[in-house]
Amino acid sequence: MAVGKWHLGITWAGVDGKPVTVSAADAANWDKVRVGTNAQGAYLKSILDGPLAHGFDQFFGLVGNFRVSRQFNVTAYIRDDAFVGVPTWNGAPPQSGEASFGPGVPDWDQQRIGEQYINKVLNYIDRHVASGSTKPFFLYYVPNANHEPHDPAKTIAVQGHTFPVRGQARFSDGSVGGAREDMVYENDLELGLILDKLEAVNDPRTGRPMVDSTLLIFTSDNGADARGVGSAGLRELKASLYEGGHREPFIASWPDGGVPAGAVSSANFGHVDLYASLAGLLGHAMGPDEAEDSENVLSALLGQVTGSSFRRPQSLVSHDDSLPRNDLPDDAALAIRENRYLMMIDGQLVNSDRLSGNDRGRAVPIKLFDLNADLHQDVDLLASPERQSLISVLSSRLLRYHNQGYSRDLQLGAGPILHSDGGVNLRNNRSGSIGYAFAIGDQPIVIRSLGLWDDAATDRPNQESATKSDGQTGGSPDGLRVAHVVRLFDGASRQVLATATVNNGNSYLVGEFRYADLAKPVVLAPGKRYALTANTSPSDGDLFHHFAAYSAVGPSPSNLVREFVARVATADGKYPDQYPDGVDGVDNRHPDMFRHRMFVGPNARIDALPLSCGSPTYDPATDAKLYLWEEDCGGATRRYRVMALAGGSAKAITYAGRVNADQAFTSVNPVSLEQGDLLDVLSAGRQVQYRMQVIGSRNDGFDFSVADGTRVCVGLDLPAGAAVFVGPTAVPVATPFSLPDFGACTP
Questions:
Q1: Please, what's the b/e burial string for 463-483 (b: 16 or more CB within 10 A of its CB; e: otherwise)?
Q2: Nearest to 643 by CA among 675, 616, 606
Q3: Which of 44, 232, 339, 410 has the fewest beta carbons under 10 Å from its own?
Q4: What percentage of residues in the chain have a pLDDT greater than 90?
């Protein structure tokens, strides 16, 4: 359950139930949103993309922070995906003498927000305990209390008890606080009530107080918004790149989970790291589309390493809101933290709306601080001779993070070259082709399909409102307006190796990208360079990211593909060239941009050919065959791959079967993106049933790992005339059969 301010964006349902964009703060625009009741008196669903669309089962709260002048932060509560009441324009009564503005309900009372929230939180815990559930719960509580408007209630009523609020706040010297401090007091009071509740009820799983088995985290997202209040001696305020802008205490309690009681740590990490840390706690393997900047910091959270010894796997990046609230340039927006050092850069990398000229796209340092020696950030070390190497490394690293679109090592291998669009600034102002060059890693790859990004119907330039990374589009279907030609070039000869014309009729959608299969797969050699392009024009109706929009797009640098550089072609059908001098009519071409910046235009799906360890040698031009080989020799884990190779055959062949083992598999993963490779993984973990399809030019397969010494049996249902080859000798075998060195097979 989520309780409180959502503040992460809402997609409204229009009067016809479809997504609607509300662009101006007036009654006519609000009338586009579906509100009211149905024939049974239930409130209509008004929210298509909100908390319930992002994993929550229940929600009670508000759109976000609000003030009477803040447009479309509706003064009405939301329960799940419907308003509680029927908000009308200027429908809320005056609050603290200030007139209503925007959508609201007639019984709105901003002094009762915290009271509403805390009762929902405590009631949720009570319901969980009463149900006797042995499942854990997740509660996300985000109060509005500390944020404006500061309008404390005289008292709040919580589960039958009354608590005073107004006039209760005291500073550490005993002096009386004002309205802002009373709101902080209300927030602290409500946290205390949650702790009291967790101490008073027993966890149905343990029979002991729930506080022992609950991981509770209390933190904030910004520094203080008033000088000298709560900044703990840090420099500057909320929205600043200095530490006072965003460095916050992180308080955690979890007696049963190993968080040491009463410990204080100086370990530095970001809220973004909660995702990977909780995933690690739950044994969840993160995919490349999940939390691309998140790192597992459980060692710090659980006190397994001291704060001074803690090293985040990647540097931490922070940003401000580009507000002129300190001595930094107005466009300064990013800082990178590596252990004790923090370096700020100017806005040339990200603030495309503020800058012009040839320097856009660079990571230009403006300040460097040693936070261990100078927490208040008074001594700028940018000119220090002994730190020039560090400055160069951090500049390049921040440029790479920004341009590739992520900082975590995503363990990318086979799959699409571009895994997501990586940004929200959409632009299509090229006549000709857009694309990129890239190199192949240390093993050959097979390209079996070419494609390009497919925007949703309601996407607009600089407002990607509908397209999601999982391919879902909030009710707005994907679809190209016109056909596009995608070309694959050889980098040395600049000759076209493969061409695909992609339209809605001959292609299939995978995530955000639309693909057409090649008549024959193309093998790309290790170490060689290639290029992809897609033709586009400003009037064709299909949006693409143009690199001038400064949207980071994540390619797949790995051992398979690497060394990307964005390119443009002056005419369709030509090999793309790099134009840092602005030949395409935009004056912001700095060579740094071409290191990683990508267009969301052409894409390709790739498979890795087998490595040399025990692998058969095969020719992609041969007829379809099925291979099984050991991919990694030696060690405590044996890795095997089963692959159906299409080669030059145009017929459809289906292989179905099972893999049995006398021990649970350590991993079972498809190596290609085909859906349904693994039809069923039995609960015992000892049998995998699978189906592989070789259709036209598509290869298919999966891999699995077993502990050394495990007996493995592979059974196959083969079409007539199909051949099976095992190991480098490529000797046909009968089925079922045993893997080498694993003993007798029991079908």
A1: ebbbbbeeebbbbbebebeeb
A2: 616
A3: 232
A4: 41
Work out the average pLDDT over 719-746: 47
Per the CB < 8 A criterion, the answer to whether 427 and 546 are in contact is: yes
**Angstrom distance (rounded) from CA 247 to CA 333:** 16
> What one-character-per-residue DSSP string does 620-631 give?
TTSPPEEEEEEE
Contacts of 510 by beta carbon, 8 Å cutoff, 6+ apart = 416, 451, 471, 605, 673
Distance CA 665, CA 674 (A): 21
Question: Does residue 665 contact residue 688 with C-beta atoms inside 8 Å?
Answer: yes
H or E segment to which residue 28 belongs: helix 27-30
Res. 392 pLDDT band, cuts 50 70 90:
very high
Chain-centroid distance of CA 717 in Å reads: 40
Tell me the Cα Rg of the chain. 29
Q: Is the pTM of this model over 0.85?
A: no
pLDDT, greater one: 4 or 322: 4
Tell me how far apart the alpha carbons of residues 562 and 599 are, in angstroms, rounded to a whole number: 15
- Count the Cβ atoms, other than its own, within 10 Å of residue 497: 16
- Each residue's pLDDT tens digit, 172-205: 899 999 999 999 999 999 999 999 999 999 999 9
Residue 590: other Cβ atoms inside 10 A: 16
